Amino acid sequence: MTAQQRIVLGVGGGIAAYKVAALLRLFKESGRHVDVVPTEASLQFVGRATWEALSGRPVHTSVFEAVEDVNHVRLGQEADLVLIAPATADLLARLAAGMANDLLTNTVLASRAPVMVAPAMHTEMWENPATTANIATLRSRGVTVIDPAIGRLTGKDSGPGRLPEAADLFAAAERLLAQRAPSASHAVAPGPLAGRTVVVSAGGTREPLDPVRFLGNRSSGKQGTAIARAALAAGAQVRLVAAHLETGVPDGVELLTASTALQLRDAVDQACEGADAVVMAAAVADFRPADYAGSKIKKKGDDGAPTLTLLRNPDILAGLVDRRRADPGKGPAVIAGFAAETGDDEGSVMDHARAKLARKGCDLLVVNEVGATLGFGTEENTVTILAADGSPETEVAGTKDEVAEAVVTALAAALNR
Length: 417
Known about the structure:
Strand order of the largest sheet: 12-11-8-13-16-17-18-19
Number of helices: 13
CATH superfamily of the largest domain: CoaB-like
Radius of gyration: 24 Å
Oligomer: single chain
């Protein structure tokens, strides 16, 4: 019988500490032994009783607690991974300086296991030269640093500094744990996409009118990046083609960026070389301006608004299907598209979706109804997954991570078929 993996979960004194409870639950559900080591300041945000109840283990903050167990050495020596979230600016500074003034910093110094830190703080603190230098120092010593996400912070602030979601941190930790020697870890069943390469596009394209303005859409990229995370967790190598994301990039993906629909097409074509599957979750502009004004278009007196002539953008999804038809041995085996639909006088959302699946020729189509408060930019989503081979339709409602897991499950099933 193989040994149970042991994780030291350090918790820093930031308000994002509440999100770590969900991460602890993921570790416990995966069968790991977890010792939570909070800083004293972090107990102002999440109390000791919460960590003990969720971990099933006693929780200490000082080297002078549980002295008979020599915790300040034992925890680090026995760990397969030390993960600290949120890592505050103060905690990063103490780690970089090699200080040992509480149980957590002692544990880090006493451990030869991989160390992963997930910083979370206000943007100004994250971008401060002192923090930048501390991050560089930790990375030079082999510490894995998960860059903070971009989004809403405490109060009205928004920017880089947000703690990544629990699913992101769990996926990153899984990859580090999988690299541990077999003698130090238990066997982990390969994910359904192990050995596969998956391309995911995410975000929304922008078509420039002039140096100031563009035609765009309301896509935040949250659903696409959630699919990339889920594919990573399922064991895939993931290539993410990103267009104007309003969310962080999952750690561990191979990142390609694009701005316009034409650039996205070229990036997707490049990413699909040798890939097993592609999920086109990006919201791609159907049209682009026929002419680009080299200077800002200005109002002139009482003249009316300028006339805008549009050109049709190439259909990236249909192009992938056409190339596969021309050469069945080339291109991804499974091509999945997204359809952001609204109903109208000519049919319902699903009427339009089923027609699109037949017209596009892709293997899977993920359909979601969109509107002012639906789909774009929200934390939750409701989709129906259609399969060209007649497999039963799947309806999923929940967080975008839950929807992503369902999409990845359908993708793996299609690959197996």
